[in-house]
## 1
Amino acid sequence: MKTSPGVMTVSDSRSPEAQRGVVVRDVTPDLFDDLISVCSKTQLKDPVHAEGVQIKREWLTEVTRANGPIAKLAYLDGKPAAQLMFYPEDAGPQAPGRRDVLVLYCVFTGAPEDRRHGLASSLLRSFLEEVRAGKLKSVAGRRVRFIRAPVFETGEGLSMAELYGRYGFSRGPEGSFEMYREVQGTYEPPSSLKAGSTSPKAVPPTGDRRWRLLPVGRALVFYTPHCQWSYVFAERMAAVIREMSPKHEVLLVDAWRDPAAGDWPGAQAVVDGIPIYAHVAEGDGFQSEVAAVLKEGPR
Ligand SMILES: CC(C)(COP(=O)(O)OP(=O)(O)OC[C@H]1O[C@@H](n2cnc3c(N)ncnc32)[C@H](O)[C@@H]1OP(=O)(O)O)[C@@H](O)C(=O)NCCC(=O)NCCS
């Protein structure tokens, strides 16, 4: 573990986690390698994965410089083993135009053998305590109305939804793929979701001009720079589309910076203006949705 002056050790020396060798640190730039190592092991040799890591490193540098630390690391016996990432919602250029909302982006304990040692609990407790006490550096001096936490399934360990549920988070509206925890204000669901909508597929409604922005023959594939795996999956989606329709022009879109992603909330990709929602790593749902668009043509 690298030393980092001024980084706070949160675990109380008498706590069960401290006794098991768990230390929580705020992630300053000198700890970016440790942060990346929690989610990437041997994959770093793969050039696509390495590209995803580079994108994440640039994003971390930019957002940390502007906001202060946006991640916490838990070390187990000196080894970086678990991470928690967050940021003020309005830190992003495409933020929905509201203030005082904190995004808890993900919590992950990398190796199966490191799970169930209290790492995620230590991270979440540290994060929630600092939010409650107004001490989180990246929102210092500002109130936090609520925390929203996107949830997605990786099929590893305990699901994010189950973990967040244990720490007082409630589920957002069906189809929003997020949970929330109120702090000093009341939760507001994502503005793009209309009341009563059961799936992001219902938004935007048929006929909305945004459905027509993308010409036939073009596909967009979205990734977030927060996660190296997101870029890897985006490249995989692009390869699938190119293989199914070599004539399509496929563009990878950075969902943090590019407004296009906001036009199709929850979509992994868009083909001929039609959003594709299935994740490429989950069965053949992605291929089936793309095949349906290619067969039926744009609506
Ligand atoms: C959820 C996760 C972070 C938990 O990490 P962890 O370090 O093992 O968590 P902890 O040991 O601190 O346990 C946290 C709580 O969950 C419980 N828990 C952990 N794993 C569990 C399991 N497999 N089954 C049931 N309960 C479990 C613990 O008992 C503990 O409960 P408590 O707070 O009531 O005492 C880990 O399983 C994981 O990484 N899962 C994948 C999450 C994911 O997909 N993240 C996004 C990746 S990009």
## 2
Amino acid sequence: MKSSFSFDDCSYTVVTTLAGKPKPLPCGKGKIKPLLKNITANVQAGHVLSILGPSGAGKTTLLNMLTLEKKGGAPTGFLKLNGRPFTLEMYKRNCAYVQQNDALWSCLSSRDHLEYAYALFQPDLSKQDRETKIKQVLETLGLAESQHIKAGNQFFRGLRAASSGASPSASPSRSSRRCSFSTSRQPESTRRRPR
Ligand SMILES: Nc1ncnc2c1ncn2[C@@H]1O[C@H](COP(=O)(O)OP(=O)(O)O)[C@@H](O)[C@H]1O
Ligand SMILES: [Mg+2]
């Protein structure tokens, strides 16, 4: 049977200020603003589902909802992977989310990011096992040669956009990812070297 992902009757609301602006604090007067209303679609393995809309239409909000990102709003609806309710555990095992913006620390290299990720997410690994896993990830992502280049930002060039494969926020041990969601603007080449 082909894998499939479906979302049915998905809505998302946030509480805004009375003027409709994002609310910096949960206290004080506010009003409910719907950002998504009753969105339904499904996609099968081997297919690409494109979500199109002008800026502000709610694409990022929808992707954040589909990837179970907690962004402070109230999601409702039904998400299913292979007919089963989609849980965080299933997400961690099967999915990857390539976000619109880099999720990297500009002054850390890809090796630094992985070292921190393993230290934080798998603190029980021995030093040797951690090193073995880091090497494996770096090689799998084609980052072995550039592992000491800092991520970089708009002020200095570096290995920008390594987030597409090596987000430290995801569990670094998952090598078999089957679904991936991607936002519209892809980061630049992962192979760019500093001047
Ligand atoms: N926390 C929030 N509070 C109020 N409005 C929000 C919040 N988050 C997003 N929005 C609004 O929801 C709309 C959809 O945003 P977004 O999903 O980022 O659109 P897109 O990705 O299609 O450009 C925008 O008008 C944005 O300003
Ligand atoms: Mg967006």
